[in-house]
Amino acid sequence: MKYAGLLVMPTGFFLAIAALILFPDPARRGLFVVCGLLVQVLGLVVTVRGHLLNRGETRP
Amino acid sequence: MMTSSDHGASGLAAAMTFALLLLAPLAIAGLALVNAGLGRSRSAAQALLGSLAMMAATFIAFAGVGACFAGPGGSAVFTIAGKNWNWLGTGPVLLVHLDKSPIEAQLAVLFNCLAVALAALIPWGAGADRVRLVAGWLIAALLGAFVFPLLAHWVWGGGWLAQLGSNFGLGDGFLDNAGGATVHVLGGACALAVVWIAGPRRGKFPKEGLATAMPGHNAAYVLAGCMIALVGWLAFNCAGALLWLHAEPVSLVVTAINTLLAAGGALGATLVVTWVRFGKPDASLCANGWLAGLVTSSACAALLPPVAALFTGIVMGIATPLLVEFLELALSIDDPSGAVTVHFVGGLWGLVTAGVFAPQKGQLLAQLVGIAALLGVFLPVVYLLLKVLDRIVPLRVDPDGERIGMDLHELGGGAYPEFVIHRDESYR
Fold this sequence. Notes:
Chain A is mainly alpha-helical.
C-alpha cells in the first residue's frame, strides 16, 4: 500500500507539469497545478496509511 | 560592458558572500548540538561523531561527484513544446579547473558544500538512538553525490525550476533564498524516509497504551545549539540572497531582520502554545519552534517585508508543537529531533509564503510547481534509495546495540563515563 502511495505522488507532479505545457491560461493552469498537489497529498496519505497498517508488525 | 563601478559592486558582493559563508558552519554546529541534546545520553557521542562524519561525507561526495551535476557550467537539456528543460548539470568532476572559474561559481560550490552538510544532519537527528554510523555516513554520501546536486541544479544552477519565469511567465521562476527547498524540505523528506524505514526506538510505541515519552537528555545543549544556529542561519540567508537572488548588499539588513523576526515570532508562538497546553513552557518544543522559524526564513527571508516574515514565523510556531504531537501520537512517527515538522513542513510553509507575499505575477504558481517537484520526485526517490540502501546496509542497529546504547555499541565508550545511564525501564 505504501508503494502505491509513493507511485501516486509522481503522478501529481506530472499533472502539474502537464498543466504548464498544455494551458497558457493562468487560471486553468493554476487549477491543474493545485489538482496535482492534491493528488500528491492523496499519495502521501496512502503512504502514511500503509505505514500505520504495518506498525503493529514492526513494533520492536 | 562592465564598468569599474560594476566590478567594484560585484567584488564587494563576492567578498561579503565569502565572509558570510565562513560563519555558515555555525548553523551546522548548532543543529548538531540540538540533535545530540534531543537524543538519549547513551547515544550522545555517536550523535556528535556522526554529525562530523556526515559533514565529511557530504564535502567529499559533493566535491568529487555532486558539483558536476549541480553547477550551471554545461547542462543536459531537452525540449518539450518548444521550451528548453534544463534538468542536469554536466560540469567536470573533482572540481577540476575550479580555481580558474569565476568567483561566483567558486562561491556557489562553497555554499552548496555547506548546504548539503546541513541537509545531511536532518535525517541523522530523526534517526537518533537507532541508526548506525555507517548507514548515516552512506545516506550523507548519497545526498551529497546525487540527490542534493540534482535539486540544487534545478533551483540554483539555472535548471528548469529556475527557468519557470522565462519559459512560462511564472514570476521570477522558483525562488529559494537559502535552502528552504534544497536543504530543509529535502532533508525533511529524507528524515521521514529514515523514520519510516528504521522504525521507532525500542519501547517508544508499546503494543498497548500510549506512546512512551523519551525526553532529550540535555536541554542545555538543545537551547545553546539554537543560539549558535541563529548566527549560521543569518549567514546562510544573507549569503543566499547575494548568491542566488542577486540581492544588493544594502538589502541584507532587511534579510537579517526578517530572519530574526521569523525565529522570534515562531519561538514566542510555541512558548505560548505549550504554556497554555501543558501549564508550563516546554524547552524542547520551544527549540523546535525556534528552528522551524529559522527554516521558514531560509525559504523567504530575502523576499518578504518584515511584517510578513513575522506572520510566517508565528504561524509556524503555532503549528510546530501541534504537528510534533500529531505525528507522534496519531501517525506513530518517532522523530526525536522533530525534523519532519521543523524542516519538511517548515520549509514547505516558507516556500508557500514566498509566493503568497511576492509582488511578481505568477510567483505563487512557480512556488507550487517547485513544491510539486519536491513531493512528487524527491520524496519517492529518497524513500526508494534509502529502502535499497537498507537492504544492503541495514540502517537500524541490532536490538542489543540499541539496548546498551549507540555509544557503547558503536564507539566502545560513552559520552558521560562517570554518569549513571538510565535503562529503558526508567521511561515507564
